Amino acid sequence: MSDSELSPHEDDAAALVDRICDEFESQWQTGQRPDIEARVASVVEALRERLTSELLRSEILLRATLGELPTRQDYEPRFPDLLDVIEEAWISAARIQKKAAPNSKSYKNETPANTDLTIAWADSSRRDSAAAIDIESAGEAASRESNSWIGKRLGVYRLVAEIARGGMGVVYKAVDERLHRTVAIKMILGGQFASPEAVRRFQLEARAAAALDHSGIVPIHEVNAHENAYYYVMSYVDGMSLADRLKAGPLPPLEAAELILTVAEAVGCAHQHQIVHRDLKPGNILIDSEGNPRVTDFGLAKRCDDLDQLTMDGQVLGTPGYMAPEQAAGKSSDCTPATDVYALGAVLYESLCGRPPFDAVSYAEAIELVQEEPAPPPRQHRPEIPRDLETICIKCLNKSPYQRYPNASELADDLRRFLHGERILARPLALWDRVGQWARQRPALATTWVAMSCFYLYHLMRLYLTREVAAGSGESMTVTTTVLGWSLAAWGYQRLLGVNRWNRQVLYAWAATDVLILTLFLLRFDGPSSSYVMGYFVLTAGAALRFRVRLVWLVTGLSVVGYFVLLFDALLRRPDKLPEHHTSIAMFLVGILTIGIVQGLLLVRVRRQIREQAGGSGSNLAGSHHRASSGVSASRKRVWLKR
């Protein structure tokens, strides 16, 4: 790679990190052992931490897929600042080793259940999936078996080239020598070594797609088996995926609306047949030579009327950037046509803005954002987007499935109204809903402002009721200054959070500032005997909402230090402000420490469960680029979790 390629001015940071990781994984696949430190040293300082985290995850999981057992001690001395990343990758690697069944003598036993990675049709997606090592298949042996089919025949079909490879199957370009036409053949990965469950899911995918007759869905022509290798034949689409098209930038708003309208009509046909796709994304929407979109890859499809499903509650299937909240929560029974509507909204969002709705850097954060955070309005990225189209998009992305369009056909109808200049059914959010959305996007700032407002109103009410307005003028000035200063500090830190490079430092500085302001305020009043010392408890408990264990320890420690400062100040200057009983001091300190320790340990437990899900249930995530699967693609938790 040339020096010019290492400049973030030529490419955005996410694309640069992504490209370097692709090269790193490709080198591992060809038997090389590239050095992480050497690769990181080749980029500018601003990207090194992010790139190191990505390469570290990749190497640990790559070693696990090759049968090695990486340990924390292999990496902790080299990367002491990335212990969380090491732990997360190590947990995933341990799960891989557990599933590998060391004493197994057949590929069938080595295949983890329910790992359904969908097919990447585009050349770039093929490169990503080819760079990955598919643990759920028979590994390299299965890959060699799949490649051996090129040039051979399946009945009347002659396989001429591999189009794409995923965790569940391989797609070949083939020639129908009977009808002299080009077709695409998807063959189950692992061939005769595929597990019964993988075979069953493969057959379910074929049946789901074959049951649909719509011009916007790639049709299935035949389902068959050859020497215990299951395959199905479908039309060959000569074109590109929507993911490829969006690499050139977002679509014009009207073009995006027309495209999603066509896709929604196709998905609406599936919904009429009680089929939910569950993995709609730009990579699974093919655009033929005439510009018509075609939906493909029903590998995660679910029949709404089928009680005998392979997916159980608790399993997370889908692509992080496009899965609905109920899908991210692993609630398979809650996946309805509205789940696909959410994914269509996410695809519309990316088509309009050139990026998915959420900017996440890890699997766990993506799941949290999908379930908790509202997507920024599309017009925030492109003001020229029509308001009605933005309203339709936001309705699709509603957290509640009951607030979305009930199915894709309803979405298509509203898009058609928009394109015809008619009044759409979707309505913008009410004022109160917009306020709530703003608060959910900035929870710390909103909480601070609400708390300061309540505190100031309480102060004014107390002065009024006690008739101490004149006597309390000095106190009022201090309270007013504190409220304004604290509110402005929160606003400033919230603005700084927009600079991704400093997010961690801003959070720590913000937490420290909160404790400092509270301590200074208490020094001005009654010190340790003030009822406001309970604010330390609030700050300590609230720190856990940031989902960072070290932040909880920091706030707990600073709160204890702040309370000791109040005690020493009272001891030296105002002994009358000391608590009457020493046991009160001890109980207060024990209370702070207890809250901090309990919150911290609880957070550690929750984070561990999420990481285990990323390594286990997360391995079921489908996606051509950012799949939380148990291979290299699982470790690639990139900015935007895109395509």
* Average predicted confidence as pLDDT: 76
Q: How much is the radius of gyration in Å?
A: 28 Å
Portion of residues in beta strands equals: 5-15%
Strand arrangement in the largest pleated sheet? 1-2-3-4-6-5
Q: Given the structure, what is the number of helices?
A: 23
CATH superfamily of the largest domain, called what?
Transferase(Phosphotransferase) domain 1
Domain count? 4
Task: Describe what this molecule looks like in 3D.
The protein has 643 residues and is α+β, with helices and mostly antiparallel strands. It folds into four domains: 3-104, no CATH class; 123-235, 2-Layer Sandwich (Phosphorylase Kinase, domain 1), CATH 3.30.200.20; 241-435, Transferase(Phosphotransferase) domain 1 (Transferase(Phosphotransferase), domain 1); 442-580. The chain contains 23 helices and eleven strands. It has helices at 13-29, 36-40, 45-65, 83-99, 107-110, 123-131, 140-147, 196-210, 242-246, 253-272, 325-328, 337-353, 363-372, 387-396, 408-419, 431-441, 443-466, 473-496, 503-524, 535-542, 549-573, 582-615, 632-635, and strands spanning 153-154, 157-165, 169-176, 181-188, 220-226, 229-235, 239-241, 275-276, 285-288, 293-295, 302-303. Strands 1-2-3-4-6-5 form a six-stranded antiparallel β-sheet. A three-stranded antiparallel β-sheet has the order 7-9-10. Helix 20 (535-542) runs parallel beside helix 22 (582-615). The longest helix has 34 residues, at 582-615. The two termini are 24 Å apart. Residues 1-11, 100-144, 310-314 and 615-643 have low confidence and may be disordered.
